[in-house]
Structure formats: structure tokens, C-alpha cells
Design goal:
The protein is an alpha/beta fold and about 325 residues long. It has helices at about 5-20, 45-50, 60-70, 90-95, 100-105, 135-140, 150-165, 175-180, 215-230, 245-255, 270-280, 305-310, 315-325; strands spanning about 5, 25-30, 55, 75-80, 115-120, 145, 170-175, 180-185, 195-200, 205-210, 230-235, 240, 260, 290-295.
Amino acid sequence: MPVMTMLEAIRHTLHEEMARDPRMMVLGQDVAALGGVFRATEGLRDRFGAGRVVDMPLAEAVIVGASLGLAWSGMVPVAEIQFLGFTQQAFHQVAGQLARIRARTGGMRGCQATIRAPFGGGVRAPELHSDSLEAQFAQCPGLKIVAPASAADARGLLATAIRDPDPVLYLEPLRGYRAIKDEVPEGEHTVPFGQAREVRPGDDCVIIAWSAMVQTCVRAAAEVEAATGASIGVLDLRTLVPLDVESIVAAAQRAGRVVVAQEAPPTAGFASEVVTVVQENAFYSLEAPVARVSGFDTPYPPGMLEEHWLPGSRRVAAAVRRTLEARA
């Protein structure tokens, strides 16, 4: 299998899906002439033409609103929002329009539209570029949310998202675009939604994460294992909506100790939803309180401070050690 970065896997999939389905279009700011701010859409306009790869104005609500109209006209739009923090400008179009189509039509019609958006920190980006807003969108019934942590999953989950009959928010980790690199299957490759991935097995504690935090948690698990001899597992959620409740509960019941890690601020973050799932379904298997590792309840800081703000492997490892020593 070829080795690709996550960015290469995303670009490869966009080319493949546009060749597979002539209804597919790509739209967003700078996606055509420039090939996207990170070059994820590079080469698409030259190969498929300006009628299917369209530069849009700096107006996120227009990009999502146009995607809604295109989908209802029989096209398959894949919109790029340059950074997830900017989706606040399009929140009404996403939450109030796109996500509600299935419910509004009594289940008769969906809206086959994908919104791609990079998120998360680690690259010293300016204000608003690194915000992790996944919990806001998880509160929008009808919207599916995807957050791959490997290049192979980036390809398989993006293909599934584009082919899904309902709207999908596809989250791409900023610091993972070129840093995450692994083998990517050739030929037809899709990854079903709602199936978490066991990244490493572990019987004494499991760390649950998604997107770029999975890499951080793998390093933390290895550190704790080397220092204590305890067996530490890592579970990658892959999709937040739908959520693989069965795998979360099974991992919690097997290990008895759980740490949930996210980049977002702690209050009402998606980690709280995962903790609730564990408490409701695996409470009597727990040998210690469920721990949560996150950013802080502040706006995302300037680049010179983000190493202190972002949860790194040392903070995750410290939470795992506390959980191993705690008693329920």
C-alpha cells in the first residue's frame, strides 16, 4: 500500500470521487486557482474544469447556502471552509437549514452535502483559526460529524461522507495534514460511520480521543506503559455523530479505568458526552472516576502560548497515572 500524508489522502480522495461521480462539485474560498489554502484541492480545476471547481467569496454562509441549493438541485457539493472557527459565520445555514432537511421533509429527502474544515491547534495560527467547535455542531440533529486520525481513515471516511445521502461535517486536524503519515489502501476504500478504531489494546486503562489527539494519546500510553508496566489502550472514535457507543462501553468495561482527551475547552465539550456514555452504560465496571483532559475555558491563545494550552502527552499521561492510582 502507498504511504501518504493525511493531506495527500484527502486530495487523492477528492480526485477519485470527482472522477467517480460527475455530479460532484467542489466550492470554497481559493479552492480553484490556488488549490486551497493547504493545497487539498490542488489540480482539481485543471482536471475537472471551472464548472465543477468554483472559487467562492469570503462569505461562509454563502458557501454553505450554495451547497444546500446545489444538493437540492441534484448535485453533490463538497464545500471547503478554510478554518472551522469561521463556520460561526455560517452556523445558521448549517444548523438551521442544512442539518434539518431530513426532519423537515418527514424523512423523504436528505441533503447530500459535505463540509470540509480544518480545526485544532499546534501550528501557531492566528486567532479563530485553531478553535475546536465540534461540540457545537454535535448539538445539531441531522448533521453527521467525522474526525479522522490517520491518512487511511482520512481517505475512507471522506469517500463515505461524500456518498452519504445526508449532510456531513468532515473535520481535518491542522497539525495532522503533513505530520500524520501512514499506509493508505488502494482501490475502492470506504470506512463506515459509527465504528470506532482500537489503535492499541490495553487492559488496565483506556484513553478515548479523536482526530489529532489520538496521536498525542498513543505517545502518552507508551510513556505510561514504559514507566509503570500497566497496559494502556487507545480508542479512536473516528466519528462523533454517529457515536460508537458499543465500542466505548466495551473498552470501559474491559479496562475499568477511562481517560477522555479533547483539544476543546472543558465546559460542555464533546468529552463530556463520552464521559456520560461511560457513566450510564459501564458504571459498575469502573474501578476509578472517569478522567477528562482538555484545553482551558479561555479563548484559544496566541501561538507563543499554545504549547501550554494544548493538552500534550505529558498532561494525558499524568491523567492516566492518577486514574491508575485512584479507587472508585
